[in-house]
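Entry 14. Ran structure prediction on the chain below.
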Amino acid sequence: MQRPSTTSLYGSRVLLIDDDEDTRDLGAMGLAKHGYQTQTCSSVEEALELLERSNGELGAVVTDLQLGSRSGLEVCEWVTQNRPDTPVILVTGHGSLDAAIGAIRVGVWDFINKPIDLSRLAHSLERALSHSRLKQEVTRLRESVARPAVAAPIVGESRAIRAVLDLVERLHESDVSVLITGESGTGKELVARALHNTSNHAEGPFVAVNCAAMPAALLESELFGHKRGAFTDAREDREGLFVRASGGTIFLDEIGEMPMEMQAKLLRTLQDSRVRPVGSDDEVAFEARVLSATNRDLEDAVEQGTFREDLYYRLNVVHVPVPPLRARDNDVLLLAQHFIEAVVARTGKQVVGLSSQAAQKLIDYHWPGNVRELQNCIERAVALTRFEELTVDDLPPKIRRYQATRLVLDADDVEQMLTLEAVERRYIARVLEATGGNKTHAARVLGLDRRTLYRKLDRLEIGDKD
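Output, structure tokens:
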């Protein structure tokens, strides 16, 4: 039985297994109130069939211990073997020490007695899902070490992006630390990969670490490594990512989010080119180029006392600012075509480009999500279109409805200049926005009477003339 779905904090679905219909219904309704999507079933057989089909899409499993003649521990064992990242919570009205021991042996996350306290169950799910996501991030980091760096081109011909490419080219024989800054979605990791791929370290590994994705203790273990027994889950020695990046590049993404207690340890590591694994008295040398990136103003963070000044200067030997997409207007269509071709190559769908009307909408839009937003927009449009060219109707609603209101001129760049009609359209729209749509007030600001303003709104196709 499928309950109405609502998205949880983690965007996960929960499978609830119980052979009592009332318990299933109450549990599903209770979890829905806490924001979870819930799917239910009543037997081991049904649960295993559903899990087989789910292909890992379920976030967590909540199962009763006694399911007719069979045990919920069978479900736990299957999940542990086939979906190790999916946490299982066991519920029983027959709590006993033997049942708890059996649950622990098959890898159950938590053990809850009936009657179910839904608040406790929701809290346990929240912790379990958070832990699961963290494990997946760590796994992704470790797998990325083993993958060879892939050359990813930086697409663009605007003056702003050419300045970035020029810096990348000038640094190709240098090993200095580079700080890459820019808004979210501008392509900072792409710049980091370009710096790696054009450097003397190109044959070595490229290791990317999201410093905002892990708490300080786990981040320290991942970066520096640990010795067996250093903490509860440390079952064997593990070298850190700094060491594993030797001969290549380590990329510290979201460096501005690194906890203060880690900043001092990172500074010493960069100064000495040596790391001390957690739980060890010995240091290990490494030789890797260090690149870092942030969307924060680190100079301001230094003034506020949330980022170490000495670490800032250690990381910021060379600064590469990545421009937002709105500063690369004549790159928008070039990037859009690049993404169209990439999606077509992956899906085989017959799309050749953009209609002129769709292209104009992309140029007019201000792209607060930058290149990442443009890529998502194009992937969505290609998936929805029924034609060989993307049309305005294929674009997301906010882009279809957007009216450009900001006037930006760069006297040194002819390509960025606007027609007089475009200047007039943007200025009138900006005045209307500033006056909250009050046309009488807007006409007064513009020095026009209302009738003249209405004719201009009609001619320039600005908003609603009512």
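The chain is about 45% helix and 15% strand. Will compare against last week's run tomorrow.
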